[in-house]
Amino acid sequence: MKRQILAAAAMSALLLAACGDDESSSDTTAAPTTEAAADTTVAADTTAPSTGGDAAACAEGKTLAAGELTIATGDPAFPPYVLDDAPESGEGFEAAVALAVAAELGFEGDAVKWVRTSFDTAVAGSDSNFDFNLQQFTINDERLQVVSFSDPYYTANQAVVGYAEGPGAGVTKLSDLKTLRLGAAAGTTSLQFILDVIQPDAEPFAFNSNADAKTALDNDQIDAIITDLPTGLYIAAVEIEGTQVFGQFPIDAGGAGDQWGLLLVKDNPLVECLNIALATLTESGELATITDTWMGEWTEAPTLSKD
Does the structure show a pLDDT above 50 at 17? Predict the structure, then answer.
């Protein structure tokens, strides 16, 4: 069922939006791979502190409508980010994140309003009918010229994709990958991850694009592809029947890619409040629980052990 839902989402959420870095798309029809390491990811456009303070007190008088918080998402919005195109339910990764942030800001129930925007007009700074917008927006320099972002609420981990009945089946930890024939798009963080972190026994295959990597997997030239998780979900759900995401790599293993932020109108003072809310959710463990549930357990992409 999850596979069918993701397939229905493919042409929008996972293709257009996921890890949608304007400066780093590859020449493939799949969602673009990450081309910048996590430690070079652009910082959010704010000088406000990311920890401490009262998010609800901070947000007073800073929303579009007094006593209300207006949140934007895609039209339509797709799993695993929003289930059944109903963000108000809190079902789905970004729906759950949005409502958790809203609660920290002091808004719950009918005080939270949802609106819809396109991905492109939002990142272009053309929309202003929301307090914040979340559609897997990658933080980058170009976008920061016209919009503002919160601190990151998600970092797209690297993941491993292969045939469900292939050599990669049963992978549970990093060392399981050393004997496999691995491939990734050239010039990406994914390829560097193979070289620096996995360090396979055989030289990895570097392809001109994700499309070439998928062809090699389909032709049994490689055993698995290393790519960012949203792209991996797209490949398994839509592009190569019989494949699956065996798992994702933890950030502390060097498996991090693009960072996603809550998008706001340029220089919106609510940025400070969102950062306080996200810091609180991070410190309490709630953000990690939401992430594990919807980007790990629900998508059947468990985090692989480093050992």
Answer: no
Q: What does the pLDDT read at residue 2?
A: 56
Give the separation between CA 145 and CA 197, rounded to whole angstroms.
Answer: 34
Q: How far is CA 88 from the centre of its chain?
A: 20
Identify residue 239 by its one-letter amino acid code: E
Q: Helix 270-284 vs helix 93-105: angle between axes, to the nearest 10 degrees? A: 110
Confidence grade of residue 30 (pLDDT, cut at 50, 70, 90): very low
Neighbouring residues of 169: CB distance < 8 A, sequence distance ≥ 6: 162, 163, 246
**C-alpha to C-alpha distances, 70 to 28, 31, 100, 175, 278, nearest whole angstrom:** 35, 28, 14, 46, 17
Q: Is 264 helix (H, G, I), strand (E, B) or coil?
A: strand
- Strand partners of residue 231: none
As a whole number, mean pLDDT of residues 64-80 equals 95
Of the CATH numbers 3.90.1300.10, 3.30.230.10, 3.40.190.10, 3.30.70.260, which one belongs to the domain with range 2-155+259-297? 3.40.190.10
> CA-CA distances (angstroms) from residue 149 to 80, 98, 124, 153?
22, 14, 13, 10
User: Which whole number is the average pLDDT over 21-47?
Assistant: 35
7-21 exposure pattern, b = at least 16 Cβ within 10 A, e = fewer: eebbebbbbbbbbbb
Pairing between strand 112-116 and 69-73? parallel
Longest dimension (CA), the chain: 61
Question: What's the predicted TM-score (pTM) here?
Answer: 0.77
